[in-house]
From TrEMBL:
InterPro entries tied to this protein: EF_Hand_1_Ca_BS (IPR018247), SBP (IPR006059)
Species per Swiss-Prot/TrEMBL record: Paenibacillus foliorum
Protein name, UniProt field: Extracellular solute-binding protein
Top-level taxon in the UniProt lineage: Bacteria
Length: 254
């Protein structure tokens, strides 16, 4: 949800205009206070989640991934959140005695928050199993590499990946099975997932632990966010020291 509130700030962070928020750009944004989770709109998402949690099953903080799958298959809960790949075991389970279907997550609108971009920011916007042709490829192998990439990203092969592996295709015109149409991308890919492990795993882990305490009412929002901000700043300081990044050299951004 955070990305739906901060997407309007991407332009301030994407200094080199690559279309992505790279690590040195993230470092700059946090260091200069562009990203500050104790301020709006960052902090505003947490009360929204807490309000949403009233509809979650009793004891949700103690329910792990596999347990939630079992609860769904037994009909004890009406919905679970899964990626397309994670849905494979649900679709193929012999324990399931009812029809199921997938649909995209709902997104925030201006009615929920004035900074909401009004569309889903897809956390799955980067395909699994990424492949690319490196700049160092030998000239005599380039044509074959291009042919292979064209083959692997063809609508037929991407459709096969969806059918067999339950992977959401990397292209929009794939032969998508009916059961996976609810996983098709309908929004924009995230440019920065500040709570994702690919940015800072310490922020991810602390957010999960402190977030549970916040949702159960034993940790106040101000304390939660100020402590999490300290973890974020420690990581940024580490990155600055490791790479000799600072405001004077524009954090190594070219």
């Amino acid at each position: 949800m955070t990305e739906e509130l901060i997407a309007g700030q991407y332009e301030k962070m994407d200094v080199n205009k690559s279309g992505f928020i790279e690590m040195n750009e993230y470092t700059r944004a946090v260091d200069q206070g562009i990203v500050d989770i104790t301020q709006s709109p960052y902090k505003d998402v947490f009360p929204i989640i807490k309000n949403w949690s009233q509809y979650w099953p009793k004891g949700y903080n103690g329910i792990d991934f596999n347990t939630s799958s079992d609860m769904f298959l037994r009909g004890e809960v009406a919905m679970i959140m899964r990626t397309s790949g994670q849905s494979k075991v649900i679709y193929e389970s012999s324990a399931r005695k009812f029809e199921i279907a997938a649909f995209p997550l709902p997104y925030l609108t201006k009615e929920n928050h004035p900074d909401a971009v009004g569309k889903l920011m897809e956390i799955g916007g980067v395909p699994a199993g990424n492949m690319a042709i490196p700049k160092t490829i030998k000239p005599e192998k380039l044509d074959a590499a291009v042919d292979f990439m064209a083959f692997i990203t063809s609508s037929k092969v991407q459709g096969m990946h969806a059918e067999k592996l339950y992977r959401t295709p990397a292209i929009s015109n794939a032969d998508l099975p009916e059961k996976l149409k609810g996983f098709a991308f309908v929004g924009d890919p995230m440019k920065l997932n500040i709570y994702g492990g690919e940015v800072d795993k310490n922020v991810t882990e602390n957010n999960q632990k402190m977030g549970q305490l916040y949702l159960e009412g034993s940790l106040q929002a101000d304390k939660y966010l100020s402590d999490l901000k300290k973890v974020m700043l420690d990581f940024v300081k580490q990155k600055k020291d490791e790479n000799k990044w600072n405001a004077e050299n524009n954090y190594g951004i070219k």
